[in-house]
Amino acid sequence: MHTIGSLGKITDIIDGCSDNPSRFLGPHPVEGSGNHKSAAVRAYLPGKEQAWLFHPGHGQSTPMKMIHPAGLFEVMCPMDGVTEKGQYQLRVDGGSGQMKTLHDPYAFPSYFTGFDLHLLGEGKHWNSYDKMGAHLRTVNGVSGVNFAVWAPNAKAVSVVGDFNDWDARSHQMNRIGSSGIWELFIPGMAAGEKYKYRVRQADRAVDKCDPYGFAAEMPPRTASVVADLTTHKWNDQAWMEQRANEDQLAKPMSVYEVHLGSWQRNLEEEHGWFNYRYLAHELVKYCKAQNHTHIELMPVSEHPFTGSWGYQTVGYYAITSRYGTPEDFMYFVDYCHQNGLAVILDWVPAHFPKDDHGLRRFDGSALYEHDDPRRGEHPDWGTLIFNYGRNEVRNFLVSNALFLFDKYHIDGLRVDAVASMLYLDYSREGDNWLPNEYGGRENLEAIGFLKEFNEQSHLQHPGVLTIAEESTAWGGVSRPTFDGGLGFSMKWNMGWMNDTLRYMRKDPIYRKHHHGELTFSLIYAFTENFVLPLSHDEVVHGKGALLDQMPGDMWQRFANLRLLYSYMWTHPGKKLIFMGDEIAQWNEWNLEAGLQWDLLEWESHQGMQKLISDLNAMLVHEPALHEVDFEGSGFDWIDCNDWQNSTISYVRKGKNPEDFVVVVCNFTPNSREDYRMGVPMPGVYKEVFNSDNARYAGSDVINTDEFHSDNIAWNGREQSIQFRLPPLATVVLKRVSQ
């Protein structure tokens, strides 16, 4: 019979700080006589005074001997198939005379293969989410949950929760070799169980939520929740097949950016939040009426502070419980797809918050972040920066993107704060930064990560979009990695946004002196695949709503905003507006207040909503406005030099150059009854859009008649047309016959 002293660090097990409890607990073969092999089955049942080994096959229980007063038991039995497969059970006194029967968590094999560990160590286990975290499994006929977490510098890790009264001694995890991964299969657990990892660091024990956890408690509670991601039956097969086989860059794209918690407020609920399923129906109905093609959601990954809008994420793999369950969110995406709407998520691999239950110093060391604050902290946001050079960290992030595409059928990720990732001196003054190995300011590790993220996203999920919010002149953001680029599908055009808004805020009388701010974007418009964004960032932090940023009296403010949108929709590039922009909200966005839907009682606000709907319909209907957004062949200036009158005119062309529209924008409040403009081809032209139309609460200076081009040279073209040019408005003309 083995003695306790020969079986390892029994004290560590009793104290709940063993790094490999399976070396002692569970079934262990012992040398016997003859052909009969025996096993010593040991169990640690803190606080229990009696225990039995139960064989379900023949219904017999064998008393176990207490070998330590802390609740350590042992029994000798035959090493048969039941014992080897962990199908025996333990029986203990559950209190009040009730017997409790449970399977032994230390009797089951590891979920990880050697190849898994090799890929994780290399940072190339792209579906690491299938092994890491909490997974429902059935092992040898026994159902339960397999837990796995990466914490290489921890002294010990336990799974704790309501199921074991948060006692770290009950379910101590096993360290898998030198991988840094800790694992334990807990029989009998099911979806819905709350849990955390109690990580014993050098100087303390900290309860951490699961970095790979698929669900979480409603904040401010912070436990992870076991979730089954296989219950939803998807009905978007046709959408997914079509997405993979289409050129997304040549399709119309009008994005409606949404913060789910404030788009509509639920006055019957404490926090004012609706469920994903309700929002699916309401948003789809609304976006279809507005003719949007894409919905972009501000981050829905789990975040502790609602006021961060989701940009300070703790649970990268957990869809926020504020609006429902993972299955509820799958329903949301599925319903959007069935109704022809793509779903883009804001994704934040640039930083994470310092909350103690999150990733910060996860195992007592700077595991996910850099140890040196000059590399590891954002001075602006008070958050931490990922160590992109560490294989496991890079794997964690790339796998997270692939997880969202895989499990939730997401159509695209808009990557937040890319500029902060690219530059080591981002927002750092003086010498408060560390150069790269070549002495430069480029973050080579982050660049490598972004390239890998883009390559794997497009390789494994054809048709998805990756979109960079990148505010500098970094070259090739949306160019392929094989061509030296970062590999994004598209990039937000922050230059266009800043220049255009700065121009539009000026009184029209001064605009002629700033004409270059209006035309400058076309100098670089085709250097990247651009999205033109009027996002939430333009209507917060004291900037005011877009309508409030427009100059002039009440009429001019609305006319200027209609002009801004119409110019934006006819400019090369995909389109994005933030919720509330389409109803000309007066107040800047406040997530606690929701949108000012009551403004739609007024004709002027109704008109703006109709304008966006019609612009979207024209964008979809006219190939010239979406097929060639990213090449110079899709755009021609007619006149970009009329600075004295603050007008511009241009041609937008489809893949067929003869499929074109002509656009003219008047940025002054003066109408011109006999405005002449050169046109690309002779023929009959018709007005197909006018932002001054009475339908939009404009002054209705419109062109109802068709007009033949004249053989009068103008703007360097042989043919020209004459028409009414309304004040502060955009007119779109189309050739309807030769």
From TrEMBL:
<dbReference type="InterPro" id="IPR017853">
    <property type="entry name" value="GH"/>
</dbReference>
<comment type="similarity">
    <text>Belongs to the glycosyl hydrolase 13 family. GlgB subfamily.</text>
</comment>
<feature type="domain" description="Glycosyl hydrolase family 13 catalytic">
    <location>
        <begin position="257"/>
        <end position="603"/>
    </location>
</feature>
<feature type="active site" description="Proton donor">
    <location>
        <position position="469"/>
    </location>
</feature>
<dbReference type="InterPro" id="IPR006047">
    <property type="entry name" value="GH13_cat_dom"/>
</dbReference>
<comment type="function">
    <text>Catalyzes the formation of the alpha-1,6-glucosidic linkages in glycogen by scission of a 1,4-alpha-linked oligosaccharide from growing alpha-1,4-glucan chains and the subsequent attachment of the oligosaccharide to the alpha-1,6 position.</text>
</comment>
<dbReference type="InterPro" id="IPR037439">
    <property type="entry name" value="Branching_enzy"/>
</dbReference>
<dbReference type="GO" id="GO:0003844">
    <property type="term" value="F:1,4-alpha-glucan branching enzyme activity"/>
</dbReference>
<dbReference type="InterPro" id="IPR006407">
    <property type="entry name" value="GlgB"/>
</dbReference>
<keyword id="KW-0320">Glycogen biosynthesis</keyword>
<keyword id="KW-0328">Glycosyltransferase</keyword>
<dbReference type="GO" id="GO:0005829">
    <property type="term" value="C:cytosol"/>
</dbReference>
<keyword id="KW-0119">Carbohydrate metabolism</keyword>
<comment type="pathway">
    <text>Glycan biosynthesis; glycogen biosynthesis.</text>
</comment>
<dbReference type="Pfam" id="PF02922">
    <property type="entry name" value="CBM_48"/>
</dbReference>
<dbReference type="Pfam" id="PF00128">
    <property type="entry name" value="Alpha-amylase"/>
</dbReference>
<dbReference type="GO" id="GO:0005978">
    <property type="term" value="P:glycogen biosynthetic process"/>
</dbReference>
<dbReference type="InterPro" id="IPR054169">
    <property type="entry name" value="GlgB_N"/>
</dbReference>
<dbReference type="InterPro" id="IPR013783">
    <property type="entry name" value="Ig-like_fold"/>
</dbReference>
<dbReference type="InterPro" id="IPR004193">
    <property type="entry name" value="Glyco_hydro_13_N"/>
</dbReference>
<dbReference type="InterPro" id="IPR014756">
    <property type="entry name" value="Ig_E-set"/>
</dbReference>
<keyword id="KW-0321">Glycogen metabolism</keyword>
<dbReference type="InterPro" id="IPR013780">
    <property type="entry name" value="Glyco_hydro_b"/>
</dbReference>
<dbReference type="GO" id="GO:0004553">
    <property type="term" value="F:hydrolase activity, hydrolyzing O-glycosyl compounds"/>
</dbReference>
<protein>
    <recommendedName>
        <fullName>1,4-alpha-glucan branching enzyme GlgB</fullName>
        <ecNumber>2.4.1.18</ecNumber>
    </recommendedName>
</protein>
<comment type="subunit">
    <text>Monomer.</text>
</comment>
<dbReference type="GO" id="GO:0043169">
    <property type="term" value="F:cation binding"/>
</dbReference>
<dbReference type="InterPro" id="IPR006048">
    <property type="entry name" value="A-amylase/branching_C"/>
</dbReference>
<feature type="active site" description="Nucleophile">
    <location>
        <position position="416"/>
    </location>
</feature>
<dbReference type="InterPro" id="IPR044143">
    <property type="entry name" value="GlgB_N_E_set_prok"/>
</dbReference>
<keyword id="KW-0808">Transferase</keyword>
<dbReference type="Pfam" id="PF02806">
    <property type="entry name" value="Alpha-amylase_C"/>
</dbReference>
<dbReference type="Pfam" id="PF22019">
    <property type="entry name" value="GlgB_N"/>
</dbReference>
